[in-house]
Amino acid sequence: MQTPGVKNATAEPTRDGARRRTPLRARLRALHRDVGYLAVGFTVIYALSGIAVNHIADWDPNFHQIRRTHQLGPLPGPDPTVSERTLAALGIRETPTEVYRASAERLEIVLADRTLHVNTASGAVEEEGQKARFFLRAANFLHLNRGKKAWSYVADTYAVFLLFLAISGLFMIPGRKGLIGRGALIAGIGAAIPALYVALSNAP
């Protein structure tokens, strides 16, 4: 029940049936929200990939390195038999791409993503190779634009989305908490960080 003398807060059509116009800031917020939702997937990909490639000197962001040692006991017999016994003992069902003798006591079993160095006399097996980090490798492929021209259009569109989100965000909140108040201060700090880094690091 509506209190006498208090207008209903819900927007109502005018007498001629026309709807009231939505304020510009409200429309901006709605558009900012929708573009933000659309950019979520891209942002996750670029953010995680960015962190990964920033530390490329410390680790391989595309592959997980495999280095394991197994002890199976002496493995006598012809090369195909040794290869079959080794793979069975390690639970590997993959068919080798190559099997060859590196020396009298060293048999090399080459698989798709790793190589088994088998000492047939001692039975020691050194497993060495790399396994793709599925999500990060795909994210890095996109982030570094390995997809070339086709992905460039998508990446450029995402960059435009980010520009819109950054600029529209400045006008989301009115008053002292917005651009004319602390919003300007915070935005200034954000812009100053890269500028100071360039200045202090003597970058070109």
Q: How does this model look, in words?
A:
This protein is α+β, with helices and mostly antiparallel strands. It has two domains: 24-59 and 135-199, no CATH class; 65-131, no CATH class. The protein contains five helices and five strands, in the order H-E-H-E-E-E-E-H-H-H. It has helices spanning 24-54, 79-89, 134-143, 149-169, 182-200; strands at 63-71, 98-103, 106-110, 114-119, 124-132. Mean pLDDT is 86; it is low at 1-12.
Please specify the SSE layout and strand pairing.
Elements: H1 24-54, E1 63-71, H2 79-89, E2 98-103, E3 106-110, E4 114-119, E5 124-132, H3 134-143, H4 149-169, H5 182-200
Antiparallel strand pairs: 1-5, 2-3, 3-4, 4-5
Helix pairs in contact: 1-3, 1-4
Summary keywords:
204 residues, alpha+beta, 2 domains, five-stranded antiparallel β-sheet, 5 helices, disordered N terminus
General form: elongated
- Widest sheet: strand ordering: 1-5-4-3-2
Instruction: Estimate the mean pLDDT confidence.
Output: 86
What fraction, in percent, of the residue positions are helical? Answer: 40-55%
Gist of the model:
This protein has 204 residues and is an alpha+beta fold. It has helices spanning 24-54, 79-89, 134-143, 149-169, 182-200, and strands at 63-71, 98-103, 106-110, 114-119, 124-132.
